[in-house]
């Protein structure tokens, strides 16, 4: 039986979600899935509320809220991550093309789209 806890968890505004799927990949635990054209946290025990998905959403549909839900399940999340690695497609920096296997990537909004920038290119973005 799963325990409950008051903790942070991702909230998806269905009115704002356009189903683009950009938030699925940043969720390392595999908590977000597209169902009937909308993003959903299908298994709340897999969402740790870290919010790494927030920055990539082009519509602002994602927020982190605090509420009572099932406790985060580390073991189940690790199981999901292992399964996800089998279909893993590395993302690339929009500036230099370096993929996440060679440099950490962080989400960035630019020219109306959500994308990724590597830590090598990030200082140039910040300082010009
Ligand atoms: S990134 Fe935003 S708009 Fe796209 S599927 Fe996720 S919640 Fe919906």
Structure description:
It is a single chain. This protein is of the alpha+beta class and 128 residues long. It has 2 domains: 1-89, Alpha-Beta Plaits (2-Layer Sandwich); 90-128. It has 2 helices and 6 strands, in the order ββββαββα. The strands form 3 sheets. The protein has a two-stranded antiparallel sheet with strand order 1-4. Strand 2 and strand 3 form a beta hairpin. The protein is globular. 21% of the residues are buried. The model has no long low-confidence stretch (mean pLDDT 90). Bound molecules: iron/sulfur cluster.
> Mind describing the biggest β-sheet?
2 strands, antiparallel
- Helix segment tally: 2
What shape does the CA trace take?
globular
End-to-end gap: 53 Å
Query: Uncertain segments of ≥5 residues (pLDDT<50)?
Result: none
Structural classification: alpha+beta
Summed up, the domain count is 2
| CATH class group of the largest domain | Alpha Beta
Q: Looking at CATH, which topology of the largest domain would you report?
A: Alpha-Beta Plaits
Helix and strand string, N-terminal first? EEEEHEEH
- Determine the fraction of residues in helical runs and give it as a percent range: 10-25%
Rg over CA atoms: 16 Å
Rounded mean pLDDT is: 90
Percent of residues in beta strands: 25-35%
Distinct ligand kinds: iron/sulfur cluster
As laid out across the biggest beta sheet, the strand order is: 1-4
Could you say what the CATH architecture of the largest domain is? 2-Layer Sandwich
Number of strands: 6
């Amino acid at each position: 039986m799963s325990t409950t806890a008051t903790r942070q968890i991702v909230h998806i505004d269905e009115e704002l979600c356009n189903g683009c799927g950009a938030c699925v990949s940043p969720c390392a635990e595999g908590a977000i899935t597209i169902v009937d054209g909308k993003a959903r946290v299908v298994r709340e025990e897999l969402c740790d509320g870290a919010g790494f998905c927030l920055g990539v959403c082009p519509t602002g549909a994602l927020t982190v809220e605090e509420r009572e839900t099932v406790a985060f399940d580390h073991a189940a999340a690790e199981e999901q991550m292992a399964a996800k690695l089998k279909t893993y497609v590395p993302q690339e920096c929009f500036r230099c093309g370096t993929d996440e296997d060679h440099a950490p990537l962080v989400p960035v909004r630019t020219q109306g789209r959500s994308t990724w920038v590597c830590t090598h290119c990030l200082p140039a973005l910040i300082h010009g």
